[in-house]
Structures are given as structure tokens and as C-alpha cells.
Amino acid sequence: MSSEGKTGDWPLWEVFVRAKGGLSHRHVGSVHAPDPELALAHARDTYTRRQEGVSLWVVRSADIVASDPDQAGELFEPAESKIYRHPTFYDIPDEVKHI
Amino acid sequence: MASASSEVHGAVDPRTEYLLRLGDDSLVLGQRVSEWCGHGPVLEVDISLANLALDMVGQATLLLGEAGDGDQLAFHRDVLDFRNCLLVEQPNGDFAQTIARHLLYTTWQHMLLQRLQQSSDKFLGEFAHKAVKEVAYHRELAAEWTIRLGDGTEESARRMAEGLDWNWRFVPELFEVDDPLQAAIDAAIAPDPRSFEDEYRSAIAGVLAEARLEAPADQRPILGGRRGHHSEHLGHLLAVMQFLPRTYPDATW
């Protein structure tokens, strides 16, 4: 590869793969690409070449709205002590997948 | 070597000849594109090109394996025995020249495979059914890059035009019908490439128009690859590809 780092000109895209029908898309990584079509092509070639997926999403990393790490305390800690919010008080039948 | 050469020297039946032509196209183009591995302009393109090369080598494995002993045919034939068209052996040049070659070849290959699915030959029909999907992706990706480079910067447009110009004279060979191919066409094993030449010309013209590129002027066509008359480039490619199995015939992984 060129050490010039020409991908510096290309925006970063986050890649989401649906492994099979019925499952949600999951974040798997990112690629550089100049535009949406090539971002999909690069995502396809980088992340689904071993039959990992049936559907792809790409989204410009710059368009992701992320929570502020400094707010982690107020956002997430209050849930820690509220065990009754977890649906763990009943048995899930074996036939129900992907819970 | 001697035994493998005798397998393909002289007259072989039209079906075997056809398998060798398509198999050698895929093998040589796969080897060419694989030369980019580790040298791609950026990491994502490096991976993308390696994938294209692997698809081609996979096609060659099927086709040459049906024609005979695939490894013998790939690694122990000399340059005069190769039946690939001249386009696929052309040097990579820069990225634009590689893309130009891939556009011109895989657009043809895709149209061929669409028709080869109706071959009277069971193996070839099934092969075409499997390969046509991956080749559709090759064609699409090559077209996308042609458009971006042609309609990109002044430099990328110049390089794309030069890449097309280099490869353009090897296109007529793709539509040449000689006696062995005519025999395969008569047996309904192979489609007649002339039946989709107009479609090919307008498809390429459409991509070039979108890329804001002029089609290169038609040059004197260069023919002969199917009969073993190759450019100097193929010998060098085979030297790299065949060195190891020829030097260490019993080598295993």
C-alpha cells in the first residue's frame, strides 16, 4: 500500500451486517470510501466475503450521534440498581431464538 | 511437462478447446489482478482487487479441472499452449489501466455467461449459472470506478483514458470466431459472441458517456491469443506463476 495515506481524502463509513433474515443489523467495523456506492462495495468486499451476511448498511461515521462519555454516570448508572426492569423472572421456551 | 503439453498440443475436441479458452482467460486475469495484492492504492481497494482475483482463480479451477488435470494445465504448460485472449494478459499499469482491462473483459464475460447458461453442455451451463453472479459484480465495480476516474480529476481522467487506449486494440479478439469456436457454436456448447457485439459496444459506450470519456479511436486489432500467439507479457506472468511448482514438483502445503 502507498504510505501516502490517500484514504485521508475519503470519509469513514460505519458498516452494519445482517447475518441472516430475522436478525438485526450489527455493527462490524468501518471502511473508507469516496461515496455511498463504493462504501457498500468496500463493505461487501471487506466484511461479507465469507458469507457473513445477507444485507448491508453503511452510514457516514460523521452522521452518527454519540452519547458523551462524560455523561455515562447520569445516563447509565441509574439502571444498574433496577433489577426488576430485566425480563428474567420467567422461562423462555427453547423454540424462541435470538432473545 | 512433456505429458501435459501433449495433452493440449494440436487438435483437441471443440469442447476441451472451449474449456481451455475460458479457463485460461480466468486464470491469467486472476493472476494479473492478484499482482496488486499488497500494492493497492488504499487498503479497501487492495482487498477488493484480491477478491476479484480469487473469483477468477476459482473459475479457472473449475474450467481447467473439467478440461483435464487443472494443476498440470495451469503450472506445466508453456506459453504457446495457453489459449487466453490477449486482453487478459496485458500488464496492470496503474489502477486506471487495470480497471479499463477489467471493464472491457468482464462486460464481455458477463454477456457471454448470461448466454452460456443455456449451453447444451451440462457442465458449462451450470458453471455459467454459478459464475454469472460474481462476474456481474466485477462488471458493475469496474464500471463504477471507470465513471469515478473518468469524471474525477484531470489526472484521473487522463489515466483512465490512457488505460482504455492501451487495452482497446484487444477487444476485437473477443468477438473473433475461428474454426474451433465455430464447431463449439454449431454444437450449441458455446454462444456466438457476435450475437452480443452490438450490445457490448453500446454498454461500453454508455459507461464511457457517464464517465465523460471519449471512446478511443479504433486501432488495428491484434489477434492470435486463442491460437497461442501471445504478447511478451504472458511469458513473464507464467514465469512468476509457475516457478514454484516447476522447481519443486513435489512441494505441498
Taken in chain order, the helices and strands of chain A follow as EEHEH
Radius of gyration of chain A using CA atoms only:
19 Å
Largest interface: A-B, 17 and 15 residues
Largest sheet of chain B: none
CATH superfamily of chain B: Ferritin, core subunit, four-helix bundle
In angstroms, what separates the terminal alpha carbons of chain A? Answer: 43 Å
Can you tell me the CATH architecture of chain B?
Up-down Bundle
Q: What number of domains of chain B?
A: 1
CATH architecture of the domain at 8-66 in chain A: Roll
Order of helices and strands of chain B: HHHHHHHHHHH
- Tell me the span between the first and last alpha carbons of chain B: 21 Å
- The low-confidence runs of chain B, each spanning 5 or more residues with pLDDT under 50, are 1-9
Structural class of chain A: alpha+beta
| Share of helix of chain A, binned | 10-25%
Report the principal-axis shape of chain B: globular
**Tally of contiguous helical segments of chain A:** 2
How would you concisely characterize the structure shown here?
Chain A has 99 residues and is an alpha+beta fold. Chain A has helices at residues 36-47, 72-80, and strands at 12-18, 25-32, 55-60. Chain A is flat.
Structure, described:
Chain A is α+β, with helices and mostly antiparallel strands. Chain A has a domain at about 10-65: Phenylacetic acid degradation B (Ubiquitin-like (UB roll)), CATH 3.10.20.520. Helix content of chain A is about 20%, strand content about 20%. Chain A has two helices and three strands, in the order ββαβα. Chain A has helices at about 35-45, 70-80, and strands at about 10-20, 25-30, 55-60. Chain A has a three-stranded antiparallel beta sheet. In chain A, β1 and β2 form a beta hairpin. The longest helix of chain A is centred in the middle third of the chain and has 12 residues, at about 35-45. The termini of chain A are far apart. The model of chain A is unreliable at about 1-5 (pLDDT under 50). Chain B is an all-alpha fold. Chain B has one domain (about 1-245): Up-down Bundle (Ferritin), CATH 1.20.1260. Chain B is built from eleven helices and no strands. The two termini of chain B are about 20 Å apart. Residues about 1-10 of chain B have low confidence and may be disordered. At the A-B interface, α1 of A face α3 and α7 of B.
